Amino acid sequence: MSARAGIAPVALHRTLAPEEAGRASLYALLARLIHAAPDDALLYRIAQSAPLDPPGDAALARAWEELVAASSVMDADAAGEEHDALFATLGKAAVSRYAGYYTGASAVDHPRVRIRADLAALGLAPRSDATEPEDHFGGLLEAMRVLVAGGAGRAPATIAEQRRFFEAHVDPAASRFFAALASAQASNYYRKVAALGAAFVALESQSFSMD
Amino acid sequence: MKDTQSNHRRNFLLAAGLGGAGAVAAVATGRKATQARDKQASAKEAAAEGYRVTDHVRKYYKTTEV
What we know:
A: mainly alpha; two-stranded antiparallel ribbon; 2 strands
């Protein structure tokens, strides 16, 4: 995702509130792990991470703790093999990463079209070298990160804007995607990733309704 | 942003544990560090696998002299 100059107002040196920074980081981490397997450096960084602040949401805290623990015994080769087994697309992938797959998208009214339009309205366009369709979960979560944290010369989106994008494009498919990822036969490390994703999306869904 | 964000939501997220340094510190700099490392590694590999004139190659050159 990159911001189009001239559409979003520029806000430099604006620091995010800690809970917003936490959201952005979780979106970034989930997007990164869905796009590609973690390398040794990322596994190490996750393994070194502290638990969530107490009291903490029970499901999120447990999922985070288990991902931290799993990251300390995982190596990049094994993670790479698992990622391939889950997502590699020679023919049909074991687990689809496309939101449209879970919402029963039809060819004539595909969510990709609406996602592209909504991203454009928010001043975001896919990178010109992007090869993945817009409803790829890695891209959707990366879009949420940019909406939460801003970046590339754009300010964070309002909570209302974040909520609209989340409820239209992320939430309808997320729980089914993470459930499919958790129950896939090849899923081991990614079972923890799926649990973290499911807990986080549930939390987001709840928090947006408090506005 | 502040005007549309209720304290209720903010407190909920903080109570959920999202304000902590844990998840934040782990990944905030993730991608940059990885890229830098990849670049270094590939530069090293390129140096190691680059063209070198070994004895074997020197011998081959000799066979091409007229």
